[in-house]
Design goal:
Layout (H helix, E strand, L loop, with lengths): L2 E6 L3 H12 L6 E7 L3 H11 L2 E3 L9 E4 L7 H11 L6 E4 L6 H8 L4 E7 L9 E6 L5 H8 L4 E4 L5 H7 L3 H17 L3 H22 L3 H8 L5 H11 L2 H22 L2
Parallel strand pairs: 1-2, 1-4, 2-3, 4-5, 5-6, 7-8
Antiparallel strand pairs: 6-7
Helix pairs in contact: 6-11, 7-8
The structure holds NADP nicotinamide-adenine-dinucleotide phosphate.
């Protein structure tokens, strides 16, 4: 049976979800896609690219799923109160993608009748490698949202306390930073940038695929590659002494803490 989806906020993350849903329209038939968005330019762009329908706070379509896609610093209170007045808990499941904003905070303005999921997707929605951390309220079950979530990532159903951790851990930004530094390293050592980029991307994919094939932790392969007094162990020593691991770990912890702080600061 086809579903009607109603997005509030049509920014970067919602656009990435809509793109993936449209790509998977055979496995997840969508009857209508509504987007309620403040920016006229954004809504026109979404309508032109994906055929979405512009909606406004006065419209009350019968949506199966409402997705709250605005930022923690936006007017969540007004948006949630409006959702509770315009949609019916019998038909509609509400999904929030707002970082740091808890189920308790959502229910404070939405009420306790709706089936509600707090999810954290990432932007890899069209690659087959995206994940969504998912926590449900007492009324919701996996069946309410699983087919929709699988159009743009692999759902990971977890306790809510892990959602902020996932938010800080799995945006692909860390990988982009690593590739950026890796390509620059090749250029610094004398490679042309296009060659450094091609090698960096394939090495990242190849190294990941090899780890999956062997089904071992990286330490096992490092132990094989790093022979006594060799090039590999010299590189490992340099990474250790310049704080590579601590730098990655500090960045993840800072992102997790920032996520929690954003939720506390939210309106
Ligand atoms: N980007 C990611 O990788 C990612 C991943 C997981 C979760 N999230 C979460 O997804 C949410 C959106 O993030 P984003 O990166 O997509 O932000 P974004 O690109 O800034 O999109 C937010 C959009 O919502 C619009 N908006 C603000 N208030 C509104 C309202 N009351 N009604 C309708 N539209 C409204 C904004 O318009 P104006 O700009 O004109 O105000 C903007 O177009 C955030 O809560 C974030 O935590 C993002």
């Amino acid at each position: 049976m086809a579903s009607t989806l109603y997005f509030i906020g049509g920014g970067n993350m919602v656009t990435a979800i809509i793109e993936a849903v449209r790509d998977k329209s055979e496995s997840y038939p969508v009857d209508a896609l509504y987007v309620q968005e403040i920016s006229q330019a954004r809504i026109e762009d979404l309508a032109q690219r994906f055929g979405v329908l512009a909606a406004d706070p006065s419209s009350t379509p019968d949506a199966d799923i409402v997705i709250i896609g605005i930022r923690p610093q936006d007017d969540l209170k007004t948006v949630l109160e409006s959702v509770s007045q315009r949609f019916s808990p019998e038909r509609t499941t509400v999904i929030s993608i707002v970082a740091g904003y808890t189920i308790e905070q959502l229910e404070e303005h939405l009420g306790h009748d709706f089936r509600l999921a707090r999810i954290i997707p990432n932007t890899l929605t069209t690659t087959g490698y995206g994940y969504s951390g998912v926590a449900l309220n007492d009324q919701a079950s996996e069946n309410d949202i699983d087919a929709f979530l699988r159009t743009f990532g692999k759902p990971l159903y977890v306790e809510e306390r892990l959602i902020d951790v996932i938010t800080g851990f799995y945006p692909p930004n860390l990988v982009y930073h690593f590739i950026d530094a890796y390509v620059d390293a090749g250029v610094l050592a004398g490679l042309p940038r296009d060659i450094a980029k091609a090698i960096a991307l394939d090495t990242l994919i190849g190294g990941t695929e090899f780890l999956k094939q062997k089904d071992v932790l990286p330490q096992v392969l490092l132990n094989i590659n790093n022979s006594p007094g060799g090039v590999g162990i010299t590189q490992a020593y340099t990474l250790n002494s310049t704080g590579f691991a601590a730098s990655v770990q500090s960045a993840v912890l800072a992102a997790v803490n920032r996520t929690t702080a954003l939720g506390k600061e939210a309106r």
